[in-house]
Amino acid sequence: MEYLQFGCQVLLGGVFAVSAGSKLYTRTAFADFAAATARLTGAGTGRARQLAVGVVATEIAVVLALIVPALVLWGFAVGIGLLAVFSAAIVRSLRRGQRAPCRCFGASNSPLGVQHVARNAALAAFGAFGIASGLSGRTSSLDFGLACVVAFAALVGVALTARLDDLIGLFRTTTATSQLGKQQ
C-alpha cells in the first residue's frame, strides 16, 4: 500500500507541478491561461485573472502538500477537489458548445472534449487510491530500488497526461490518413 501511495503522490504531484509550471513559464503562457479561464467561466478579464492566479496557487499548494508527509492526505483531497472543479468547468463549457483550448498544460490548441474530463476522472481516482492507501495505517520504510521503479512509472504517467492532447491528435491523424488511403 505504501508503494501505491508513493506512486500516487509522484503522479499527482508531477501532474500539478507540470500544469502550474507550464502556466507560469512565461508571461504569455499565463496570459493565455487567464484568457482561457475567462472563456471557460464567462468571467470578466480582471476576475478571470484572479481565478487563474487562484488555480495556479492551488496547484502549487497541492504539490507542496504531497511532499510534506503530514499533509499528504490533504494534498490528495485538495487535488481531487481541484480536478472536480476543472471537470465541472469543462462539462459546462461543452454544454454551451464552447470547445476552446483549456491551456491546462501550456500552449495546447486542442479543443476541450470528453477526453479531458476522463483524464481528470482518472487522476482523481489515483488521488482516491492515495487516500485509501494512506488511511490503511501500515507504515514501513520503502525499498529504494522499488521506490525508483514506482517513481519512474508515475513519471511516465505524468508525461502521458501532460501530452494527452498530442497523443490523441497523433492517433486521429493516423486514423484519418488511413481512412483516406482506403477511399482512394
From TrEMBL:
Source organism, top-level taxon: Bacteria
GO cellular-component term (any): membrane
Keywords: Membrane, Transmembrane, Transmembrane helix
Keyword Nucleotidyltransferase listed: no
Membrane-topology descriptor: Multi-pass membrane protein
Subcellular location: Membrane
GO biological process, one term: methylamine metabolic process
Annotated TM spans: 60-91, 144-162
Domain Methylamine utilisation protein MauE: 1-132
Protein name per UniProt: Methylamine utilisation protein MauE domain-containing protein
